Amino acid sequence: MEKKKIIRKICLLGDGGVGKTSLISRYVLNSYSDEYIRSIGTRVSKKVIEYDDCELTLMIWDVLGQKSQKTLHAAYYRGANGVLLVCDNAREETLLHLPMWKQDLMEVTGSIPLIAIINKADLGSALSKDALAQVCSALGKSPMYTSAKSGEGVQEAFETLGSEIIEVSK
Questions:
Q1: How far lies 52's CA from each of 2, 4, 9, 137, in Å?
Q2: 3-state DSSP call for residue 146?
Q3: pTM of this prediction exceeds 0.85
Q4: Beta strands 82-88 and 4-13, pairing class
Q5: DSSP state, residue 142
Q6: How far is CA 163 from the centre of its chain?
Q7: How far apart are CA 66 and CA 121, in angstroms?
Q8: N or C: which end of the chain has fewer CB within 10 A?
Q9: Residue 149: CB partners within 8 Å, gap ≥ 6?
Q10: Could you tell me which residues are beta bridge partners of residue 63?
Q11: pLDDT tens-digit profile of 86-142?
Q12: How many CB atoms lie within 10 A of CB 88?
């Protein structure tokens, strides 16, 4: 029997420099570069995930991380079916901004599957337990830890989001 084919749009959101582009590069191309290149606008990548009963094609939108671009962000959010909210393990302010990113997204999309990611897990953590607890409470879930550099947790984060999107699609 042929698998059901599903195509869904996901967005990676978070402050500039948290590693959104690097996460996509690690997941889609299995590559990593230490060179920082600021995203301008948005870039779309594609990845197909095989599940038991379906084939999920993720259209992955890498959204620029400048908070001043709220109107532009809203256009990118339209039609999104899931989101990875990304912060930097070494910069607590990026963690504290995740609820704002979620709120801006949900104003456009309504409730959609969401995974919070603490990226750069290979670096020492600068996140306080209080800030982590506060953000987990605001987001309604605990984050996953990833490292685009080492690959740790990257595939699991995208595939967990994919599974949640499939559940909502049924």
A1: 11, 10, 20, 33
A2: coil
A3: yes
A4: parallel
A5: P
A6: 14
A7: 23
A8: N
A9: 22, 32, 34, 120, 122
A10: 42
A11: 999 999 999 999 999 999 999 999 999 999 999 999 998 999 999 999 999 999 989
A12: 21
